[in-house]
Specification:
- The protein is an alpha/beta fold and 645 residues long.
- Among the domains are: 73-270, MetI-like (MetI-like fold, Orthogonal Bundle); 291-377 and 479-566 and 573-645, Rossmann fold (3-Layer(aba) Sandwich).
- Helix content is 49%, strand content 11%.
- The protein has helices at residues 2-6, 12-40, 66-102, 104-119, 122-133, 137-164, 167-174, 179-187, 192-215, 227-235, 243-270, 352-359, 387-396, 404-407, 414-425, 430-443, 449-452, 462-473, 492-509, 520-526, 547-550, 554-561, 635-644, and strands at residues 308-319, 326-337, 341-345, 368-370, 373-376, 379-380, 397-400, 480-484, 512-517, 529-534, 537-543, 612-615, 618-620.
- It has an eight-stranded mixed β-sheet, sandwiched between helices.
- Strand 1 and strand 2 form a beta hairpin.
- Helix 3 (66-102) packs antiparallel against helix 4 (104-119), helix 9 (192-215) packs antiparallel against helix 11 (243-270) and helix 18 runs parallel beside helix 19 (492-509).
- The longest helix is centred in the first third of the chain and has 37 residues, at 66-102.
- The protein is elongated.
- The termini are far apart.
- 44% of the residues are buried.
C-alpha cells in the first residue's frame, strides 16, 4: 500500500499537485494567524488604490489590502468547501448503500430517486437548494453538499454492488451477519480508495461551486469574506483595478486546480477509476411472481437412511426474467451419505453451481428456491431462518468457492477471517479463535502458518488461497464440503494437491463431499458417484467407476469422449459436442438435449424423459438410454439404418 501511494508523487504532475495541496492547506491554517490583523486594517486615506509596493494587489473601498484579505480568506473558503464535500460524501454513502441495506424492493425506490437527481445538472441543484436554504454560508454549504450527493450516491451504488456480489459477502450473510455489519466490515473498506480519490476531486469542484455562489451573493455575506465574496467585491472595480478581481480569482483557480490534479494523480497512481461514469440503463422490472410450471420430477429416489448428510428432493431454482420466471434448476433429486463423494459435471449453464448455491442457501435475494425436501443432517434448510440453523450451517457445512480471491476480504488478514468463524459460531475468544485459525492453516498444509495468518490474501499464491479457503471450512466440524470448481485457474500440480487435500479430509473425518467440475476425468478419479446435469436437471446418476465405460445417456458419453487421453488419435480432429447448450429461458418442451443428440426422434422433441433407475445404482433420463451412437455402429448396422430411413 505504501508503495502504491508513493507512486502518486513520482510523476511531475503528482509532485506538483501534492506541493500545491500542501501549500493551500498550510495557507488555510496560517493565513489568519500571520495576516489577519493586516487584512482588517482600514485606511480611509488609501481607498481603491491600485497595485503598489505597499499593496501588491491594491486596496478595496475601505482601504484594506486585497492581497492580505485573499490570503486570509483561504481558511474560510477551504473549510466551507470541505464541509460541503463532507455532506455530499455522507449523504451519498447513505443513499448509495441503501439498496444493499434495505433490500431489493425498498432499495429500488432509493435507486430511482438517485437516478432522477443525477439527471439534473449539479449547478441547477445547487442554485435550487441555495434558494431553499437562503443566502449565507450555512445555506451555501447545504446547497453544494446536497447537490453533490447524487453523484456520490451513484458511485457508491456501483461500487457496493460490485463488492456485494463477492463470495465472502454472501458467506457472511449465510452465517447470519447483519447487513449493516457486513456493510461496515466487508463492503466499505473495499471501496475506500475510489471514494477517497473522488472525494479529493470533489473538494476542488466544491471550492469552485462555493466561490460561484458567493460571487452571486448567495454564499458568504459581509462582514465575513471568502474568495468568492472578494471576487464579487472586486468585479465592480475591475476597470479601475483589475488586480482586485484577478487576485481572488487566481486563488480560486490555483486551489481548485491543486485538488483536482491531486485527485487525478492519486487515481492514476492507485489505478482507481474516477467519476461515476455513464448512467446504467434501468433494468426491466422483474416479472411478477407466479407459480412455475410443473417440473419433471426425478423418480425412484430411495428414502433417506440414518447416514444421509444431505437429502435433496425436487429442487428448483427460479429467477425472474423479462418474459417470465426462468428455471435454472429443474426438479433435481439426490442424496449424499457420510464419507461419500458425489461429483456434479456438465457444461457451463447446466445448473451445477446454482444447485450448489441453493444447497448452501447462497442464492441471491431475487432468486427463489423450492424443494419438497432440502435437509442437511435432518435440518430443513428451507425453514425460516433461526440462530440455531445459522450456527449449524456455519459449523456443519463448508463451501469452497471457485475463485478464492473473491472468497476472502482483501482488506483483512487471513487469520482474522478464519478466526471470525470461531468467534461468531463457536463462542471462542479472539485469542482462542486465532490459535484455532493457525491450527487449521497448518492442517491444510500451509507452511509457517503462524506468520501466514498475519498476511493478506494477495500475499498468498492461488493454491495457498484455495487451501486457506478449505481451512476456513474446517474451523468448525463440517459434515459436508461443497467444492465449486476448486481447481479452476490452478496449474496441474497444485490442482492435484488441492484434490488430495480434499480426499484426505474426507477419509480422516468421514466428511461428505460434493465436487462440482467441468473435468469429468477429475470427478471420475475423486468421487464415488457422478451426477451429469444438462439444462438444469440431472440426466444421469451413476457410479464414478462406470462413467468412462458404462454411461448410458448420449450427453454423458459425449462429455467423456470430448476429453482426450493418451490413446487419442492425434491425426484426427478432437471430439466435440455439436451445437450450443440450451438457454434456461428457452427450454424446449421435450428433451433439452434433443437438438444436439444423434439419437433424437419425434418423441424426444415432445416428451421430456423422467430420471428412472435402470439398475440399483444407475439412473438415466433418456428414451434411448444405452443405444449405440452413430459412431459406434458397425458397417452392417449402418447399412441397415440407412435402408430403414
Amino acid at each position: 500500500m505504501q508503495g502504491r501511494w508513493s507512486r502518486v508523487v513520482r510523476t511531475p504532475v503528482g509532485l506538483t499537485a501534492t506541493v500545491l495541496v500542501v501549500a493551500v492547506v498550510a495557507l488555510a491554517c496560517l493565513g489568519p494567524v500571520l495576516w489577519g490583523a493586516g487584512a482588517d486594517a482600514v485606511d480611509t486615506d488609501d481607498i481603491l488604490a491600485g497595485p503598489s509596493a505597499e499593496h501588491w494587489a491594491g486596496t478595496d473601498n475601505l482601504g484594506r489590502d486585497i492581497l492580505l484579505r485573499t490570503l486570509v480568506a483561504a481558511r474560510l473558503s477551504i473549510v466551507l468547501a470541505l464541509l460541503a464535500i463532507a455532506i455530499a460524501v455522507v449523504a451519498g454513502l447513505l443513499l448509495g448503500s441503501a439498496p444493499f441495506v434495505l433490500g431489493r424492493h425498498a432499495g429500488r425506490v432509493v435507486t430511482a430517486a438517485v437516478n432522477i437527481a443525477v439527471a439534473f445538472p449539479g449547478l441547477l441543484l445547487a442554485l435550487f437548494f441555495a434558494v431553499v436554504f437562503g443566502a449565507g454560508a450555512t445555506g451555501a454549504v447545504l446547497a453544494i453538499g446536497l447537490a453533490g450527493a447524487p453523484a456520490f450516491a451513484r458511485l457508491t451504488q456501483t461500487l457496493v454492488a460490485g463488492v456485494a456480489a463477492r463470495d465472502y459477502v454472501a458467506a457472511a450473510g449465510m452465517a447470519g451477519v447483519g447487513r449493516i455489519r457486513i456493510l461496515f466490515r466487508h463492503v466499505l473498506p473495499n471501496i475506500a480508495e475510489p471514494l477517497v480519490v473522488n472525494t479529493t476531486i470533489g473538494a476542488g469542484n466544491a471550492l469552485l461551486a462555493f466561490a460561484g455562489l458567493s460571487f452571486l451573493g448567495l454564499g458568504v455575506q459581509s462582514p465575513s469574506f471568502d474568495w468568492g465574496r472578494l471576487l464579487y467585491d472586486g468585479i465592480g472595480a475591475i476597470y479601475v483595478n483589475a488586480a482586485a478581481a484577478l487576485t481572488p480569482g487566481a486563488a480560486v483557480l490555483l486551489a481548485g486546480l491543486a485538488f483536482n490534479l491531486f485527485g487525478e494523480s492519486v487515481a492514476k497512481g492507485l489505478g482507481v477509476p474516477v467519476g461515476v461514469g455513464p448512467r446504467a440503463r434501468a433494468s426491466a422490472p422483474p416479472a411478477p411472481a407466479t407459480a412455475p410450471e410443473p417440473a419433471v420430477r426425478d423418480e425412484d429416489v430411495p428414502e433417506p437412511s440414518s447416514d444421509v448428510v444431505l437429502d435433496v428432493r425436487d429442487l428448483e431454482v427460479t429467477f425472474p426474467g423479462p418474459a417470465g420466471p426462468v428455471r435454472l434448476v429443474r426438479g433435481v433429486s439426490f442424496e449424499v451419505r457420510r464419507g461419500e463423494a458425489v461429483g456434479i459435471v456438465g457444461e457451463s449453464g447446466s445448473g451445477k453451481s446454482m444447485t450448489a448455491l441453493a444447497i448452501t442457501r447462497l442464492v441471491a435475494d431475487h432468486g427463489r428456491v423450492d424443494a419438497s425436501r432440502l435437509d442437511l443432517l435432518g435440518t430443513d434448510l428451507l425453514a425460516p431462518d433461526t440462530a440455531v440453523r445459522r450456527r449449524m450451517l456455519g459449523t456443519s457445512l463448508a463451501m469452497v468457492f471457485q475463485d478464492p480471491m473473491t472468497s476472502f476480504n482483501p482488506t483483512r488478514r487471513i487469520g482474522a477471517q478464519l478466526a471470525e468463524v470461531a468467534t461468531h459460531h463457536q463462542g471462542l475468544t479472539r485469542r482462542e479463535a486465532m490459535a484455532r485459525a493457525v491450527d487449521r492453516l497448518t492442517a491444510v498444509r500451509i507452511p509457517d502458518a503462524d506468520r501466514r495468518a498475519g498476511q493478506y490474501p494477495h500475499e498468498f499464491s492461488g493454491g495457498m488461497r484455495q487451501r486457506a479457503m478449505i481451512g476456513m471450512g474446517l474451523m468448525g466440524a463440517p459434515a459436508l464440503i461443497v467444492a465449486d470448481e476448486p481447481t479452476t485457474a490452478l496449474d496441474v500440480t497444485v490442482q492435484q494437491q488441492v484434490l488430495d487435500l480434499l480426499g484426505a479430509i474426507r477419509e480422516a473425518d468421514d466428511v461428505a463431499l460434493v465436487l462440482i467440475s467441468h473435468d469429468v476425468t477429475v470427478v471420475g478419479e475423486v468421487c464415488d458417484r457422478v451426477l451429469v446435469m444438462y439444462a438444469g436437471r440431472v440426466v444421469e446418476d451413476l457410479p464414478a467407476a462406470d462413467l468412462a465405460t458404462a454411461a448410458r445417456h448420449p450427453y454423458s458419453r459425449a462429455l467423456v469422449d470430448a476429453v482426450p487421453d493418451m490413446s487419442t488419435d492425434l491425426t484426427k480432429p478432437l471430439a466435440t459436442i455439436p451445437g450450443r447448450p440450451v438457454s434456461p429461458a428457452d427450454a424446449p418442451p421435450g428433451c433439452a438435449y434433443a437438438d444436439r443428440c444423434p439419437l433424437a426422434d419425434a418423441r424426444c422433441r415432445t416428451e421430456d424423459p423422467p430420471l428412472v433407475a435402470d439398475s440399483r445404482r444407475h439412473r438415466v433420463a433418456c428414451w434411448h438410454a444405452g443405444e449405440p451412437l452413430p459412431a459406434d455402429l458397425s458397417a452392417d448396422d449402418l447399412v441397415e439404418t440407412v435402408e430403414s430411413l
